[in-house]
Amino acid sequence: MAPPASRRTGYSRKAQYSVFTGYLLAALGAVLGLVLLGLSWVRPHAFAPLRGMVSSISAPAGEASAVTRSGTQSVWSTVTGFWQAGSQNAGLREELEIARIRIAEADAVAAENARLKDLLGLAKDEVKPVAVTRLVGSSAASARRYAYLSIGRRQGLTPGMPVVSDKGVIGRVLEVTRSASRVLLLTDTESVLPVRRAGDDVVAFAEGRGDGLLKIKLINLGLNPLKKGDLMVTSGAGGYFRPGVAVAVVTELTSDGALARLVAEPSATNFVTVEPIYEAVAVAAAQTPPERELADPAAGE
Amino acid sequence: MEQLNPRARSDRYGSRINRTQSPWRALAVPYASIAFASFAPTLLLADLMPLVPPLGFMMLLGWRIMRPGLLPVWVGAPLGAFDDLLSGQPFGSAILMWSLAMIGLEMLEARFPWRGFWQDWFTAALAIVIYLLATAAVSGATLATPLLMAMVPQALLAILLYPFIARVVAGLDRFRLTRTRRLA
What we know:
The complex is a heterodimer.
Chain A: H1 13-42, H2 48-83, H3 85-120, E1 131-133, E2 135-138, E3 146-149, E4 162-164, E5 169-176, E6 181-185, E7 192-197, E8 203-208, E9 213-218, E10 231-234, E11 246-254, E12 257-262, E13 272-274, H4 280-287
Antiparallel strand pairs in A: 1-13, 2-3, 3-6, 4-5, 4-13, 5-6, 7-8, 7-10, 8-9, 9-12, 10-11, 11-12
Chain B: E1 10-11, E2 14-15, E3 19-21, H1 23-43, H2 55-66, H3 76-87, H4 93-111, H5 117-138, H6 145-176, E4 179-182
Antiparallel strand pairs in B: 1-2, 3-4
Helix pairs in contact in B: 1-2, 1-3, 1-6, 2-4, 2-5, 2-6, 3-4, 4-5, 5-6
């Protein structure tokens, strides 16, 4: 491609000045970008209202694509299901037998649980969800893993609220504007979630690695008690998540813990539930500096 | 004449008689296409790793390389600001990178005025790889080996997608200059 003639200014003062101004503006744009980038580093949520405005404008398109996504998923699962029908049928029948036995066992455990809770006088109500919605999009081209919701402060969302699907933890609400919010997914490298092994009390942190796996870091070092196939659930530490929600399944052991695969992949979920912060008082207390007294739960904000 | 050749009085942009190009379309198409390319990746749900190429930046590269002189040099700042609001990057990152890319391509063009497509593809590939590394560095993510390994497929996909983007830009350019406005 030939270079455009417009850059060759000749003796025209006007052309010379306009080319020079163009370069000047470009350099100023770069400097402005650098300044804004620095500002975003210092105050990450400074531009949240602007972002929220744009994402609430684009939310309808996201809703449409979310509906299409779940539609294509069901088509695909129908096709694959057709091919695997025979072997799957036999496998499922076997699983059903085992599951029936387990249900009977679980009933017994539940009955005993209720009895023990009555004994202790503990009656924890079921968690009432703040909202049920779809994930309308994500930061698919960026190195960070965010998802977007088309609901926000108007529906009662606040930063820190857990986002779960029917299978397990998706992430937590990071940034809320009037009618849009941003969710930090578990796979993001800055996401850390306290977990324990389902069934016993091996406690650990689940950190995102950025490539879809979670790194399970044990708190008590020593012999690694984890095994392949162990299910990690939320421990409730930190006060954001209620305990006992499935997070990940261990797939590979490492020297200080394990690598685990997500139980609830956000792209495979249809609807997600935003839950209230489990122990709001504990979260507020953790955010209150020790010099200040914890007067009421709202004082920590 | 039309009986011999129906396209005798028209060129690739349509009939030359009583038709002219629409100034609105000629001006808006590059900017609208770049803004739409910035927006498109947010509709996809990449939950495990970065997967979708930075389409907005690639569209900017496409217009800049295929049609030099059409976009002003300073256009990286406003278009980058729009991209920043959608991409999940900290605000300012695309303003900086896109401005630097525009200045860099301007300098490159002063050095190599005549280029072929392979050379352009190489330039675009280099720009994309540098852009992906730089955006990951400023995104606030912890740069460890797993994340960098996860970004390799994204970079390869982006590089292989550039010729397609170039075709899209060429098609959009034809659409941009189609003679649609009827002269009274």
